[in-house]
Design the sequence.
């Protein structure tokens, strides 16, 4: 079932909703009455030219920026103004862009910091779960995070975010700095997460590869939603290159 | 002939004894510099703050202890009061009222603010208390003892042990506890730490509080030598700053190495070259190290976003 939310389609499966959200930095407004949704069990890919507001969507959603107006909802509850710590407790996790590990700390200690809110015993069990999912991390458990390869580091970042068993995983530019073969591994991992019922909201410049693994693509332009299409459909859309290069999308 | 040889042997033994004594007292002084230097590196790593008032941060607890003793408190009790005041004023107030409002304006703004604070604190102490140097008791007493022919003062051994325990305790806290590792995480990548739900503000406050404890301990150990004076922080602040850079500003262990190197080498230079050169050693060592290894002996190059 799909309904109209201020001109944009949302679905009964919507887990995250942005409703007319305005957000930005001190003197700069990035999101201009943005309305969009992220659905349960799907990979939603956010694309658009630089400055369109992709990363700002993730930061606003994860409580690192407070919306100036509009509502951000998760499972129907308004979450404006919640802190990252509160949102982690409510089932959302965020893997930011770039290197996010604490290089001088070991793999185990990096994992521990991902589950600070969890009781000690639960944390231990969850770390074990992550290591079952990422056997390579078990082999490197006492190594310094800085000594891991790019692919291992990304596994650790994602594994660390999964410790809180999030319902929604936000991930910003997961392919940056990774070899193409590793990018495929990361995308397959995200696909498996979505197939297991988690929702993934991904920002990715490597659009063609990301679209192959995504369910839905949302294109942003100047902080507004310019396009909302099934990923497979957009993959063959002649507008794709223009969109990615900063051209105007045909709605 | 035999007596000449005997005299030579005695002289050689005396020289070795002198050298070892200088080395030991240098390590003790260096360990004290290292604590102040460690404060520099911790504040830099956790909050991007270079505190040019660090020397005055050592001076203030010294006067707090003097005031405590003037009210009849014993030194140890005055020290505890000084630590508490130090956490409140040099930790919380410094962070909330000076560093936090300035951080958004970049590191230069914080540097200028702390330079101003340094001048202000000295002038305030001079006007409010006195411009004269005040004797300060050593918590370990003034006695000496003999060991393997060396004359060793209890205050040197005490300073070394106290500083060693502080530094080892801090290293253990930072590396072996989850809070310590969360502090390291904030120092290494604040944004990621926030994304993991780490309470970044609290961790940064802990760093300021640790620095406040370090300067209070430094004051306790060094003031018997420097005497309590409004400008006593000039020397200790400068040497701690050089020590932090020599060891590597982004490496806590580097601060220890830098502090001990400065302490030992200035002691040796003062004895074997001239006492006039003593205070210049830290500067010479600092220049030599940054020419050869700009990141410091144990420091690592840092990425800078442009």
Sequence:
């Amino acid at each position: 079932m799909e309904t109209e939310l201020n001109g944009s389609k949302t679905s009964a499966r919507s887990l995250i909703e942005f409703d007319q959200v305005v957000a930005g930095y001190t003197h700069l407004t990035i999101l201009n009455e943005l309305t969009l949704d992220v659905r349960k069990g799907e990979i939603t890919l956010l694309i658009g030219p630089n400055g369109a507001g992709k990363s700002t969507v993730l930061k606003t959603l994860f409580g690192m920026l407070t919306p100036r107006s509009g509502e951000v909802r998760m499972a129907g509850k308004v979450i404006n103004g919640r802190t990252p710590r509160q949102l982690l407790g409510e089932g959302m996790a965020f893997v930011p862009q770039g290197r996010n590990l604490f290089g001088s700390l070991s793999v185990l200690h990096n994992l521990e910091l991902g589950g600070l809110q969890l009781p000690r015993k639960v944390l231990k069990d969850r770390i074990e779960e992550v290591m079952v999912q990422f056997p390579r991390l078990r082999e490197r458990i006492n190594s310094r995070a800085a000594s891991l390869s790019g692919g291992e580091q990304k596994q650790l970042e994602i594994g660390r975010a999964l410790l809180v068993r999030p319902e929604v995983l936000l991930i910003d530019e997961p392919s940056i700095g990774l070899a193409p073969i590793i990018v495929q591994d990361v995308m397959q991992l995200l696909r498996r997460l979505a197939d297991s019922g988690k929702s993934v909201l991904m920002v990715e410049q490597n659009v063609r590869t990301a679209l192959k693994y995504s369910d839905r693509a949302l294109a942003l332009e100047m902080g507004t939603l310019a396009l909302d299409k099934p990923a497979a459909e957009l993959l063959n859309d002649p507008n794709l290159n223009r969109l990615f290069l900063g051209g105007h999308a045909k709605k | 002939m035999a007596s000449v040889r005997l005299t030579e042997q005695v002289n050689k033994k005396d020289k070795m004894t002198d050298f070892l004594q200088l080395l030991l007292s240098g390590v003790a002084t260096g360990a004290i510099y290292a604590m102040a230097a460690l404060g520099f590196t911790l504040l830099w790593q956790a909050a991007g703050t270079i505190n040019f008032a660090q020397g005055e941060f050592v001076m203030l607890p010294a006067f707090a202890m003097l005031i405590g003793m003037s009210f009849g408190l014993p030194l140890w009790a005055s020290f505890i009061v000084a630590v508490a005041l130090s956490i409140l004023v040099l930790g919380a107030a410094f962070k909330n009222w000076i560093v936090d409002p300035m951080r958004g304006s970049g590191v230069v703004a914080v540097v200028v603010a702390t330079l101003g604070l340094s001048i202000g604190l000295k002038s305030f102490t001079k006007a409010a208390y006195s411009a004269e140097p005040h004797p300060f008791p050593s918590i370990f007493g003034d006695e000496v003892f003999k060991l393997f022919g060396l004359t060793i003062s209890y205050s040197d051994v005490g300073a070394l042990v106290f500083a060693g325990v502080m530094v080892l305790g801090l290293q253990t806290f930072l590396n072996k506890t989850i809070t310590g590792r969360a502090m390291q995480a904030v120092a290494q990548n604040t944004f990621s730490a926030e994304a993991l739900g780490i309470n970044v503000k609290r961790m940064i406050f802990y760093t300021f509080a640790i620095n406040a404890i370090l300067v209070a301990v430094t004051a306790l150990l060094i003031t018997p030598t420097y005497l309590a004076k409004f400008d006593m922080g000039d020397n200790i602040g400068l040497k701690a700053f050089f020590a932090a850079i020599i060891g590597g500003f982004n490496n806590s262990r580097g601060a220890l190495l830098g502090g001990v190197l400065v302490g030992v080498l200035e002691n040796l230079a003062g004895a074997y070259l001239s006492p006039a050169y003593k205070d210049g050693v830290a500067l010479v060592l600092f220049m030599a190290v940054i020419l050869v290894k700009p990141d410091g002996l144990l420091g690592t190059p840092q990425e800078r976003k442009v």
